[in-house]
Amino acid sequence: RKLTSISQPEPEPTGTGTSPAEPNNGAVTSLQTKELQTLHNLLKLLVQDLTTRVKKHRPGVQPADLEEVLKKGVDLLVIGRGMSEALQVPSATLDFVQQKGVEVRVLQTEKAVAEYNKLAVQGAKVGGVFHSTC
């Protein structure tokens, strides 16, 4: 059983980094590359940790499972319950997210991924936790 957690990185300022006035024409700087690799590694660790913690579909997604993605400052969290929606999302977990001022949407995983992608393209500060099996 796997949960995958993602959130949108903060937008990077344009420029080469040597002068705010110098545009870099969309080129990725070595600092940006390093930051992206660090983010990728952190997300891999988070997924491994969530996979370890979510052994069963019940009790399901717990508040502790969501803390890392909520720390990213998202305004909206999309939770995917699996392909057949077997993973539970207790009301206490939903209350925890909402008490943080974050809107939450719980969907079947394919629909959750589509919703996340739609919101991300629109520029929303969205995070996602997706159960990728059952």
From TrEMBL:
<feature type="region of interest" description="Disordered">
    <location>
        <begin position="1"/>
        <end position="28"/>
    </location>
</feature>
<comment type="similarity">
    <text>Belongs to the AAMDC family.</text>
</comment>
<keyword id="KW-0963">Cytoplasm</keyword>
<dbReference type="InterPro" id="IPR036748">
    <property type="entry name" value="MTH938-like_sf"/>
</dbReference>
<dbReference type="Pfam" id="PF04430">
    <property type="entry name" value="DUF498"/>
</dbReference>
<protein>
    <recommendedName>
        <fullName>Mth938 domain-containing protein</fullName>
    </recommendedName>
</protein>
<dbReference type="InterPro" id="IPR007523">
    <property type="entry name" value="NDUFAF3/AAMDC"/>
</dbReference>
<dbReference type="GO" id="GO:0045600">
    <property type="term" value="P:positive regulation of fat cell differentiation"/>
</dbReference>
<feature type="compositionally biased region" description="Low complexity">
    <location>
        <begin position="13"/>
        <end position="23"/>
    </location>
</feature>
<dbReference type="GO" id="GO:0005737">
    <property type="term" value="C:cytoplasm"/>
</dbReference>
